[in-house]
Design goal:
Strand order of the largest sheet: 6-5-4-3-2-13-12-11-10-9-8
Strand content: 35-45%
Oligomer: single chain
Number of domains: 1
Largest sheet: 11 strands, antiparallel
Number of helices: 8
Helix content: 10-25%
Radius of gyration: 21 Å
Distance between the termini: 33 Å
């Protein structure tokens, strides 16, 4: 970050993070001022909790009418300098006609950031709607979420003397569609990828889905991806519990290098101003030498409700791009390697 804990990545690097759910923008220590959301204590089903079957499990999205949790958020990896970045925030959901209204809010403690910016950056789930089957319907008023987040981000860049950097790229590439895609990615990691599945332990099932192109990407199209989900086994929902009433699930995704390369070129093209000379000769300007990305998700959840207790998202990027901005000069190779892990631990109230 410019003045905080994270390193500063170029727009090129961020645009290639096809599977990422968080980016690299600095953030201030203020709150968003929104009111509290409904709270409900989450308790196990009546009677003694039944252990999860060992070999096969069916995953049902059946949340209580109201959900309220405190979430411990930890970011580690090469995106962080020094100690891990940690904070706590709130997670809530309530049943509405046709599904659930869900979202994250905060931070509550230990952070330097606003909710609005975290929504824009893809680190928190913006207020959204999910259908009864667990599929993502969309962000509630994505345009407003985008407007507020962009305004706060602009003010901070201006205070740091970096307004040209912001207006030269980020202001044009961070759109309401980006907000929606990033929140959808978070929701799928928690619920959407798993709802309705019947899985056998150790047997992989292939799924296909679309993913956000990148955290600060100027590419307009999401990536079509495929991955393998697995039922790892029964586990305790929390360390303090005795019975193994939750399940551990995993998802592993790798982006096709050719698809990644196309997305990188598209993103760089869209980031250039209309009429810019290099935009017309983008195929000569940009040559992707290597583009590899992977994403792994581990979820601990109650199989009878899909209430998440722990979500860990690990991402890695290996990118090499040859740039020839001046046709009379030799090309310049830009290489980026990045890995990071985001962990959410839910405590229901």
């Amino acid at each position: 970050m410019l003045t905080h804990t994270r390193t500063s990545l170029s727009l090129l690097t961020m645009s290639a993070l096809a599977l990422a759910a968080c980016d690299d923008l600095p953030r201030p220590n203020v709150t968003d001022g929104r009111g509290e959301q409904p709270r409900a204590k989450i308790v196990p089903s009546a009677g003694a909790p039944a252990p999860v079957p060992e070999d096969t499990v069916t995953l049902r999205f059946a949340w209580p009418d109201e959900v309220d949790a405190e979430v411990s958020y930890t970011l580690t990896g090469s995106a962080v300098l020094g100690a891990a970045e940690t904070f706590t925030h709130a997670f809530s959901g309530r049943k509405v006609t046709g599904g659930w209204e869900v979202g994250e809010k905060g931070p509550l403690e230990g952070a330097e950031y606003t909710s609005a910016e975290l929504f824009l950056r893809g680190e928190l789930l913006a207020p959204s709607l999910a259908k009864q089957d667990g599929t993502f319907s969309g962000v509630l008023d994505a345009a407003k979420v985008h407007e507020v987040g962009l305004s706060e981000m602009r003010s901070r860049y201006e205070a740091q003397g970096s307004l040209p950097l912001f207006e030269g790229g980020l202001a044009r590439t961070l759109t309401p569609a980006v907000v929606s895609r990033r929140s959808e990615s978070i929701w799928k990691s928690m619920v959407g990828h798993w709802a309705g599945k019947t899985l056998t332990r150790g047997v992989a099932e292939t799924i296909s889905f679309s993913s956000p192109v990148g955290p600060a990407s100027a590419a307009q199209q999401p990536l079509d991806l495929s991955g393998e989900i697995r039922y790892v086994g029964a586990t305790r929902c929390t360390p303090k519990e005795v019975e193994a009433r939750c399940v551990a699930l995993s998802l592993k995704v790798s982006a096709d290098p050719d698809v990644m390369a196309k997305s990188v070129v598209e993103s760089i093209t869209n980031a250039l101003p209309e009429g810019q000379a290099n935009r017309a000769r983008i195929e000569e300007v940009v040559k992707v030498e290597q583009a590899a990305a992977r994403r792994e998700v581990t979820l601990v959840a109650d199989p009878n409700t899909l209430l998440p207790y722990k979500v860990v998202i690990t991402q890695a990027l290996d990118l090499a791009v040859s740039l020839q901005l001046d046709p009379n000069a030799p090309p310049r190779l830009q290489e980026s390697k990045l890995d990071h892990k985001v962990e959410r631990i839910f405590t229901y109230r």
